[in-house]
Amino acid sequence: MASREDLYQEAVRTxxxxxxRIARAYELNxxxxxxxxxxIHMALxxxxxxxxxxxxLRTWLYRVGHNVATSHVVIDRRASSRQLLSIDQIDxxxxxxxxxxxxxxxxxxxxxxxLIHELRPLDRQLVMLxxxxxxxxxxxxxxxxxxxxxATRIHRIKRILTTRFxxxxxx
Amino acid sequence: xTNDSDSSFCEMWQQGSGEPPRFSPEELQRTIKRRNLRExxxxxxxxAVFAYYSWIFPALLLRIGCGLIIxxxxxxxxxxxxxxxxxxxxxxxxxxxxxxxQRSELVRQRDALRGxxxxxxxxxxxxxxxxxxxxxxxxxxxxxxxxxxxxxxxAILGYTLVAxxxxxxxxxxxxxxxxAAKNLQAQIDDLDRLTRDSR
Lengths: 171, 199
Fold this sequence. Notes:
A: Rna Polymerase Sigma Factor, Chain: A, B: 7 helices, 0% strand
């Protein structure tokens, strides 16, 4: 079994960018975002002492990352009092989104980030894990939701993304 | 909806997030120690300031009241830290699914808000009551020493109004926290529904 330091370096090398995206998706303020990212790294570093290989390092890392970020959202009273939406409440045919508006890739990513910030933590996790290319079974393992339920929600996520962001994804 | 469009969304998301900041294990260890130290220093400072004010008050009851407020503040700081603050991430966090972890965090916050009367408001009550009594007694002594009459009736009415205002503030704090706890309970119910549907 690799040492904690080796595991940490490996996790950061392979998924450091994903951890950065988690922090971006949970915190808009740049200073607080850096603190959140540091919290995620600290939690990962501490947690790797207990890592025993029962799940993959990727599953472990996503769990820790999303759990720390979720805790950040729950603790932050400002965010708690804001009404967050579930995927089911997102309007698929949002009148504000026309294809021209989402033509630029950067603009589309920014708008996607805005959409993610409106979501409740669990739905945020689903959208982000889908966008990270994690398959439904692994998403179920990370989040604790059944594969069938994950598949239903991902189907809706895809519809939302296709309707709102197709232009940005192609450019 | 094809796999091609799926991968183009993933590609769009994963590109352009920039080079992530790096943290060395040594830096992370140092940060953990620094944060712990900062919390202890802040608590010590608060207690030192209250102790100073308690020392300079002229009347015994005022000092006792201030001492009780110090004790209440220390208790509330401890409870805030225990119940409602961002606690260090548990080492076994990687074993917990996101749903389980989120539920436990929501329950912890909900319980802290529900019990706000007992751990946030009540500890200040003895100190405030004794402090107000001390202030009443001190004002009466100073007025009489100056050879002026002390109108007991209007003075009692005035202090009752002050106590009433404090009571209203306590009630509003309790009401706001109860509303926030209900909001958290709704989120817990949502998670429970989701995991029930998953079975």
